[in-house]
Amino acid sequence: MRTALTIPIELDAPIPTWFRIGGRAERFVRVDSTESLRACLELDPSLRVLGDGANLLVDDDGVPELVVQFVKPNAATLAASIVDGVAASRGHDRAIVRLPAGCELPEVILQCIRAGLGGLEGLGGIPASLGGAVIMNAGGAFGQIADVVHRVHALDRAARAGTIDRRDIAFDYRHSGLNHLIVTEVELSLTRDDPALLRAKLKDVMAYKRGTQPLAADSAGCVFKNPTLAASRSELASIGWSGDTRAGSRVSAGFLIEKAACKGLAVGGATVSERHGNFIVTNAGAGARDVIELMSLVARHVHDRFGIVLHPEVVVWSRRELPGFQS
């Protein structure tokens, strides 16, 4: 039986992303329940789910599929869910907290720290919805969200509900294997700790990021994944790489981009950041196509210089197939 869609559909709606550019959605819906999400899936099983827009670029022509975004739960609801998890874990070192996928990760981190729950503070400065963070296994130098995921609740494209335990999720670097599902709730396994110590750890993480990344600029964070070396590359050490250079090791995409002399490279209103080579920032008049072309140009420079292929971390939504870009 079909579910009646009672929520309004916005037509020709903007799709907010951290690049602050890009095309629009022909149809856009904000949902606040699994039931309304099911109704949207009945309307368009190929719908696209928008998280916080922090790791997304929408091509200038926009997208024809229905775009769905979860309504962000208010602070009181979020805090209550965390308190429930703490109460249920009384007498234990760890607490299981169950939260809606639409929560903003930075707010979850702050609320958990206030409740004396550790494990997320290393993800400070990463803008994402909780569901989006799990889908891409968001992380950085100080950890990844896979480290604290206990269980994931989701719908498939046929609107069937399922629960996936951590041991059954194929987490890897910027990968979860859950892209075919729509995450609705996430259970996190967090450790009881002193809120003051957790705040100090978060402060250190944020100080590091403010010193190395253009956090105030219009950007989606790192645009390329750190590549895995196919063979030993000891020559990288001679140009300043201090990490492992053996086959199978990961090397910083930002380092490769800098050494390929790409910092400051620009296409239209998009520019490779002078502060961090793996950030592309957008300026007045920039279009999504500028970013796409600049990413392709940077990848070619790195390949020509090192023979190493860079793969995008930023997801690109487009009406057309873009070779090399995930959608």
Q: Helical segment tally? A: 7
What is the terminal-to-terminal distance?
A: 31 Å
Question: Structural class of the secondary structure composition?
Answer: alpha+beta
* Fraction in helix: 25-40%
| Radius of gyration based on Cα positions | 20 Å
Task: Report the strand count.
Answer: 17
User: Averaged pLDDT, please?
Assistant: 94
Proportion in β-strands: 15-25%
- Give the biggest sheet: 5 strands, antiparallel
| Secondary-structure element pattern, one letter each | EEHEEEHEHEHEEEEEHEHEEEHE
Poorly predicted tracts of residues? none
Q: What is the molecular shape? A: globular
Identify the quaternary structure here: single chain
Write up what this structure looks like.
The chain is of the alpha+beta class and 327 residues long. Helices cover 26% and strands 24% of the residues. It contains seven helices and 17 strands. The protein has helices at residues 34-43, 75-88, 105-114, 130-136, 195-212, 253-259, 288-306; strands spanning 10-14, 24-31, 48-50, 56-58, 63-70, 94-100, 117-118, 139-140, 143-144, 149-155, 161-165, 182-192, 219-222, 266-267, 270-272, 279-282, 315-317. The strands form five sheets. Strands 6, 7, 10, 11 and 12 form a five-stranded antiparallel sheet that branches. Strands 1-2-5-3 form a four-stranded mixed sheet, covered by helices on one side. Strand 10 and strand 11 form a beta hairpin. Helix 2 (75-88) crosses helix 3. The longest helix is centred in the last third of the chain and has 19 residues, at 288-306. The two termini are 31 Å apart.
